Amino acid sequence: MLSLLHGIRCAKGIGREGGILEGLDKVVAEPILNFGNTGISLRSIIVAGAILAVAAFAIWIIRQLTVRAQGKLGEGRASTLYVAGQVARYIIVFAALAAAISALGVDLSALSLFAGALGVGIGLGLQDVVKNFVCGLILLFDGSIEVGDYVELNDGTAGAVAAIGPRATTLRTTDHVDVLVPNAELLGGKLTNWTRDRASRRIHVPFGVAYGTDKDVVKLAALEAARSVSFTLPDSDDRRTQVWLTGFGHSALEFELVVWPSLEAVKRPGSMMAAYCWALDDALRKYGIEIPFPQHDLRIRSYFGHEGQAGVEAATGRSGMPANAVKASASDASANDAAADIVEGKPL
Question: Which residues of 267-279 are buried (b: 16+ CB within 10 A; e: fewer)?
């Protein structure tokens, strides 16, 4: 008898809990928003939100794994890993959006009414966004620009490619300033990739010495300066450090130190040029080679109507002639009346 009563009470409790759950299920499944012929319920919103949250977490995991893998595998394979990570993130984003829309129960055919307006909107207001996104995809797969490359734009902006995003590419300068360049500008404009294929480039360091300096000594000093810089690559069959005489300046013989630095040095052009200039100055001082500054010889043909020593005496107010002779001659040359007045000290 007691067991029967206990069973009845449990059945009533289960019935109450089941009724609560059933009521809650009805509330969650009840449409709260109508989109065309489709009703969107709280349950579908929760499911769609969960899908987007899982997608965001997956994107974060992929980003962290990509960064760690790039650090371990080195710069040679870093760009490939970056492209793979970006493609995986784009796929997850599009798949998550499609799954979330499906979870909401939205009939995509209902959106056909807005297709025309959406097309006009893209054509008028979103064309730059779409163009930059497509150009970003092309940059990812084209291979002309990769993460880690040091590029210089036609307007002089230069930096290492830090990221290729859906709208813009981030260039990080040697001062650690991030410059955002639209992808379409990179794809359609002219630029120089200084480190494409991860190969070093030859650079030219100009300098000048005084006329009459022994050219062989200049070459010896410049080559010694190049070897003293730690990031100068050793000579090979097709890459040799050289010293060129490039011209005859107004006050100096113009030379260039032609040298092959390491890849990391090419990415820091300011620091690289400063190191070579410092080494060149030390080497030229060591061998007693003069670095001239601009000099000009000025010859005055006529000064206050006089030439040579007479012009100097006229300008300084001194004259080798007696005072009476100056007075006498001043009246004879009317063209020099002003100079005579200055020499005699007459008031204005």
Answer: bbbeebbebbeeb
What CA–CA distances, in Å, run from 35 to 223, 253, 335? 77, 81, 102
Mean pLDDT estimate for the chain? 75
Q: How far apart are the first and last CA of the chain?
A: 141
Alpha helices (runs of H) in the chain, residue ranges in sequence order: 2-29, 42-73, 78-104, 115-124, 127-142, 183-188, 215-228, 263-266, 269-286, 309-316, 323-330, 337-344
pLDDT in tens, 281-336: 999 999 999 888 776 666 666 655 666 666 667 666 665 545 444 444 444 444 44
- CA-CA-CA-CA dihedral for 242, 248, 251, 252, to nearest 10: 10
DSSP string, 302-316: -BTTB-THHHHHHHH
251/90 Cα distance (integer angstroms)? 61
Q: Taking each helix axis from N to C terminus, what angle separates 78-104 and 127-142, rounded to the nearest 10 degrees?
A: 140
C-alpha closest to that of 316 among 324, 326, 327, 304: 304
Centroid of chain to Cα 328: 76
Q: Are 304 and 315 in contact (CB under 8 A)?
A: yes
Measured CA to CA, the distance from residue 77 to residue 62 in angstroms comes to 16
The amino acid at residue 334 is S
Render pLDDT for 42-58 as a digit per residue (tens, 0 to 9).
777 788 888 888 888 88
27: helix, coil or strand?
helix
Q: Return the number of other C-beta atoms located less than 10 Å from residue 153's C-beta.
A: 17
DSSP secondary structure of 215-255: HHHHHHHHHHHHHHSTTBPPP-SS---EEEEEEE-SSSEEE
Which whole number is the average pLDDT over 201-230? 92
Q: Do 268 and 174 touch, CB atoms closer than 8 A?
A: yes
Please say whether the beta carbons of 41 and 28 come within 8 A: yes
Largest CA distance in the chain: 158
